[in-house]
Specification:
alpha+beta, binds 1,3-dihydroxyacetonephosphate, eight-stranded mixed beta sheet, 7 helices, L-fuculose-1-phosphate Aldolase
Length: about 210
């Protein structure tokens, strides 16, 4: 199987797994991967639970649609990460419940809406998770707002919308999106409790050890 064929299968398998576990409902969410000469992205209005590898949208290196179904209306959201982060090989956008709940809170720190509660949140997300102001889905004005943050953050939370997560591989991006959802859930569950956060030294050690 070619690299591209394997990536097409992997997008559909991982998307179905996310959908089966409730990380995405209806036609919410989109996933892309970088190829040697372009990108694959899920079609607009497609259900992550029922993707067809042959119908994924194919974009050329200039993000022009060259094959498959009509691409997600949020190509620019993915482009913001690929342009800002040459190491990004995949981008996952979800409307997963807990991360989106945090993105709707009015009294969070927009520079760090989720505190460092657990090591895997720091290891997978990298310690930076800025909140990007609200834009309607599909609004191209979102691109510069995301790009400005993506230079120093692997993932962002879109206010009142959901998370966007990049990764050094498709699996990494999916794992990070899952870990972000768990961290958001823990944060919401513990919001009114007295909580012990990871210390600055513990976060620094994780960054040193796991990058
Ligand atoms: P698309 O169906 O165009 O990918 O949009 C889904 C979505 O998640 C919008 O935020």
């Amino acid at each position: 199987m070619s690299d591209e064929a394997a990536l097409r299968e992997a997008i559909c398998t991982l998307a179905a797994s996310l959908f089966a576990r409730g990380f995405s409902v209806g036609s919410a969410g989109n996933i892309s991967v970088r190829l040697a000469d372009g990108f694959l992205i899920t079609p607009t209005n497609s259900c992550l639970g029922r993707l067809d590898p042959a119908r994924l949208a194919r974009l050329d290196a200039g993000y022009r649609h060259v094959g498959g179904d009509k691409p997600s209306k949020e190509v620019f959201m993915h482009r913001a990460f690929y342009a800002a982060r040459p190491d990004a090989q995949a981008v996952v956008h979800l409307h997963s419940t807990w991360a989106t709940a945090v993105a709707c809170l009015d009294d969070i720190d927009p520079r760090a809406p989720i505190p460092p509660l657990t090591p895997y949140f720091v290891m997978r997300i990298g310690g930076a998770l800025p909140l990007v102001p609200y834009y309607r889905p599909g609004d191209p004005a979102m691109e510069p707002a995301i790009a400005a943050e993506a230079r120093t953050a692997r993932a962002v939370l879109l206010a009142n919308h959901g998370p966007v997560v990049s990764g050094g591989s498709l699996t990494d991006a999916v794992y990070a999106a899952e870990e972000l959802e768990e961290a958001a859930k823990l944060f919401m569950l513990l919001r009114r409790e007295r909580v012990r956060h990871l210390s600055a030294d513990q976060v620094a050690e994780l960054r040193r050890t796991f990058g």
